[in-house]
Amino acid sequence: EVQLVESGGGLVQPGSPLKLSCAASGFTFSSNWLNWIRQAPGKGLEWVASINPDGSSTYYPDTVKGRFVVSKDNAKNTGYLQMNNLRSEDTAMYYCARTGYGYWGQGVMVTVSS
Amino acid sequence: DIQMTQSPSSLPASLGDRVTITCRASQDIGNYLRWFQQKPGKSPRLMIYGATNLAAGVPSRFSGSRSGSDYSLTISSLESEDMADYYCLQSKESPNTFGAGTKLELK
């Protein structure tokens, strides 16, 4: 069974860093892209980052470029989203999804507030 | 960046209705278009990929179509379990972009 489980969310102050994890199982993680998508409370979906199967290429929208870093450890079947210099507008539920967006995790909440 | 203009934002409908949600792409995206269903408190569920292909386990009353730069999700006969938010996503280019969403609700 394919599973993606996010962790690492919480309440942080503006300007703080936070690192999310996405633990994968039930499929060949090293052959899959990993995507991060977020959803602010009561709002729509926003794509945040993608990384290719071997981790050599990463992609971001302008809203997070230079602050967020996506990575994956294929040996540990785990993906990461390092978020730096967090802002109030980064407050959202963060989801990871694999290649094709056919499987998503349950999401983890990140709240940025003083 | 490619913009996805989704309409309507809200769609009141009755059980048994045929309903259609549309996304218009600002640039050519070929068939790199997916549709998702999201119910309150749940993760999005892939419904359609490649603009017209039904994802595994999705009921056959759902279908996707394309006419030029317009992409549509149609539910042939609305059931109560279909009440949800729906989003389109283009993955032709980075940044991948979602439509703003459509809330499908009972009239």
Overview of the structural elements:
Chain A is built from no helices and ten strands. Chain A has strands at residues 3-7, 10-12, 18-25, 34-39, 45-51, 58-59, 68-73, 78-83, 92-98, 108-112. Chain B has 107 residues and is an all-beta fold. In chain B, the strands form two sheets. In chain B, strands 2, 4, 5, 6, 9, 10 and 11 form a seven-stranded mixed sheet that branches. A four-stranded antiparallel sheet of chain B has the order 1-3-8-7, with no helix packed on it. In chain B, strand 4 (33-38) and strand 5 form a beta hairpin. Chain B starts with a strand and ends with a strand. Chain A binds chain B through residues 35, 37, 44-47, 50, 59-62, 95, 100-102, 104-107, and chain B through 1, 34, 36, 38, 43-46, 49, 55-56, 87, 89, 91, 94-101.
Core attributes:
heterodimer, A: 114 residues, mainly beta, 4-stranded antiparallel beta sheet, 0% helix, B: 107 residues, globular
Provide a brief overview of the structure:
By secondary structure, chain A is mainly beta.
Can you write the helix and strand succession of chain B as a string?
Answer: EEEEEEEEEEE
Biggest interface and residues each: A-B, 19 and 22 residues
C-alpha geometry of chain A? globular
Q: How many beta strands in the DSSP annotation of chain A?
A: 10
Averaged pLDDT of chain A? 97
